[in-house]
Design a protein that fits this description.
The protein has about 325 residues and is an all-alpha fold. The protein has one domain: ABC transporter involved in vitamin B12 uptake, BtuC. The chain is about 75% helix and about 0% strand. It has 14 helices and 4 strands. A hairpin with a 2-residue loop joins β2 and β3. α4 runs parallel beside α9 and α5 runs antiparallel to α6. The longest helix has 27 residues. The two termini are about 40 Å apart. InterPro entries: ABC_transp_permease (IPR001851). It holds the Pfam family BPD_transp_2. This is Monosaccharide ABC transporter membrane protein (CUT2 family).
Length: about 325
């Protein structure tokens, strides 16, 4: 009897580890790095530093939530950094006209429309999302520079600035927005029909299509989510810096994709984790912060992030697939 119970518990533990290996592994990496930086960098563990880290990574967390849906369907969005820059520039320009509410709404609508266009071209135009969003990456950055002539626009609106600089219960507003996005994404991904369809599109799209589900709507929908999330990240970034810069978000897409892949989401689709993506973004945040506090040359930060991306892809395609039994 005791042997049977032990065997059952062992199988349940093995099943749990297999299903959540991506989240567990990045959690271990996060804890180890957090402990190392706590010992090596004096200012790392201060409340002020931790609060600032949470504010700085908020845009990455927000877009990583949407990117988790995109990559789980087997697609990718390389344009989120340029959409962030375009949104920041538009918010600054439109806020300068004296209508901050319209500037906010208009910026978010532009992000949503951009995402819908990307999604329509990928899903209904039968183009690879990689190609569509790569073209969008260049086009929207160019559009932002054209509209602003490369200059930043100061933001002085008392309505917009709290979105990046406001504080509530010891945490900055961007952190609270990021927490809300994680909660919403987790619920939709794990407890709604749409979330189940997202996973099914990435794992077995043909079976889902034959069951009568319009998979192109889902593919377009997740890219629209990414556009809206990137616009929200642009609003937060511009409000935090009190300036709408067309150069905001340069190489931002690589940071977001790295966070999502680190969290265990499969680049080939069919498997994803919202919580894993959030922990992945947190891990990248403390790496950047820890290296700066250790006075490592700032030029090493992108080099380290690039190496982490390569390592994450290796883990994603080899290690995660082996433990989870996902398709390769």
């Amino acid at each position: 009897m005791t042997t049977t119970a032990t065997t059952t518990s062992s199988r349940q533990l093995s099943s749990f580890v297999s299903r959540h290996f991506g989240v567990l592994s990045i959690s271990v990496v996060f804890v180890v790095l957090f402990a190392v930086f706590s010992v090596q960098a004096d200012a790392f563990l201060t409340v002020e530093n931790q609060v600032n880290v949470l504010r700085q990574i908020a845009p990455t967390v927000i877009v990583a939530m949407a990117m988790t849906f995109v990559i789980t369907t087997g697609q990718i969005d390389l344009s989120v950094g340029s959409v962030l820059g375009l949104s920041a520039a538009l918010l600054g320009m439109w806020a300068a006209t004296g209508s901050p509410v319209l500037a906010l709404v208009g910026t978010l609508v532009v992000g949503l429309v951009v995402g819908l266009v990307n999604g329509a071209l990928a899903a209904y135009g039968r183009m690879q999302s990689f190609i569509v969003t790569l073209a969008a990456l260049t086009a929207f950055r160019g559009l932002a520079l054209f509209l602003t002539e490369g200059y930043s626009t100061p933001i002085e609106s008392t309505f917009l600035l709290p979105l990046g600089q406001g504080k509530l219960l010891g945490l900055y507003t961007p952190t609270w927005i990021a927490i809300a996005c994680v909660a919403l994404a987790w619920y939709v991904f794990n407890h709604t029909r749409f979330g189940r369809y997202v996973i099914a599109v990435g794992s077995n799209a043909e079976s889902l299509r034959r069951s009568g589900v319009d998979i192109r709507k889902i593919q377009m929908g997740v890219l629209a989510m990414a556009g809206l999330a990137a616009a929200l990240a642009g609003v937060i970034t511009a409000a935090r810096l009190a300036s709408g810069s067309p150069n905001s978000g340069t190489a931002f897409e690589l940071e977001v994709i790295t966070a999502v892949v680190l969290g265990g989401t499969s680049l080939m689709g069919g498997r994803g984790s919202v919580i894993g993506s959030a922990i992945g973004a947190l891990t990248l945040g403390i790496i950047s912060n820890g290296l700066v506090l250790l006075r490592v040359d700032v030029y090493w930060v992108p080099i380290v992030q690039g190496l982490i991306l390569v390592l994450a892809i290796l883990m994603n395609t080899r290690l995660f697939g082996r433990f989870s039994g996902a398709k390769k």
